[in-house]
Amino acid sequence: MAITITMGIQKGGCGKSTTTGILAYLLKEDGYRVLVIDMDSQGNLTEMLSEESSNKFVGKSVLEAMQQNNVKDYIYSVDENLDLLPSNNFLATFARWIYTGKTYTGDVIPFTGSPTLILDSLLDLVRDEYDYILIDTPPSLSEQTTNSLCASEFVVVMYECSNWCYSAVPNFMDSVESAKEFGKRDTEVIGILRTMNDVRRSDAKAFNEIIEEDFPELVFQTVITRKAPVGRLSLYGFNENKELNRALEKYKDFYKELVDRVTN
Predict the structure, then answer these.
(1) What percent of the chain has pLDDT over 70?
(2) b/e 137-148 (16+ beta carbons within 10 angstroms → b)
(3) What angle do CA 127, 14, 189 make, to 5 degrees?
(4) pLDDT of 24-36, one tens digit each?
């Protein structure tokens, strides 16, 4: 049975997609079977892992998988150990479909059931086929996010070291608690990852320390610093990338911490 982990916070620019992609790469390199789900309509993670435009997956994305309750026909194989449920900008119509039955194509597919458990029910069809399922979320407390949380046993809170991200944490923690209450996975925060840290800024250092004081048992010891090779992963990807080892350096420490927490 797969261990399902969501990366989330309702703020942009916190490294959710990059972290999800790197974690998926490290897991599959260690021989784990991994399914990655892109629940962000921007499709950045889809493009990072597939090295294709997200527009290629119109009609073949996680949105259609949820509408048809059919996951296997929409899985894109990245390589032997890594599969992807891709997304594109039409995922932004997810809420409209839930509440009106209308799809972006103009068809009507009536929805009945819990609007927060659609993804959870879909993943039940394939949980036995993977070791890990990783979910990337949009920068909002949307239906995509609530579905992701309710489908997961564990949540990594992505924490950019800034005031606006710090102020977003309490509401996101409340959302995780709601997922635990209304979902079926006993969802819990497995840790807070301090990311996008700029070592040159004193305010970043201060917000690093504040979150550790507030949540001493939850913060990962690893702090991800801003590095150009990480930023260029979206350009060069994971294949034939001469900067890959430099980009993955800090993430390897986080990876070890995370696997240890979710398996012990």
Answers:
(1) 95
(2) bbbebbbbbbbb
(3) 45
(4) 999 999 999 999 9
Residue 222 pLDDT greater than 70, yes or no: yes
Identity of the amino acid at 16: K
> In 151-240, which ranges are continuous DSSP H helix?
163-182, 202-214, 228-231, 233-236
Q: What is the pLDDT of residues 93-132, one digit of tens each?
A: 999 999 999 999 999 999 989 999 999 999 999 999 999 9
pTM of the shown model: 0.93
Q: Helix (H, G, I), strand (E, B), or coil: what is residue 48?
A: helix
Domain that holds residue 255: 3-263
How far, in Å, CA of 49 to CA of 43, rounded? 10
For residue 45, the surrounding DSSP H or E stretch is helix 44-50
Q: What phi, psi does 82 have (nearest 5°)? A: -130, 120
Q: How many domains does the chain have?
A: 1
Can you give the CATH number for the domain in which 104 is found?
3.40.50.300
Q: How far apart are CA 192 and CA 211, in angstroms?
A: 9
* Dist. CA 236–CA 22, nearest whole Å: 13
Estimate the share of the chain in helix, then strand, then coil, as percent rounded to the nearest 5. 45, 20, 35
Residue found by looking up tokens 């879909």 in the block:
122
Calpha distance 109→246 (Å, rounded): 47
Q: In what order do the strands lie in the sheet with 132-136?
A: 76-79, 82-85, 34-38, 132-136, 3-8, 154-160, 188-197, 219-225
Q: Which two three-digit tokens encode residue 174?
A: 């409340």
Cα–Cα distance between 239 and 138 in angstroms, integer? Answer: 26
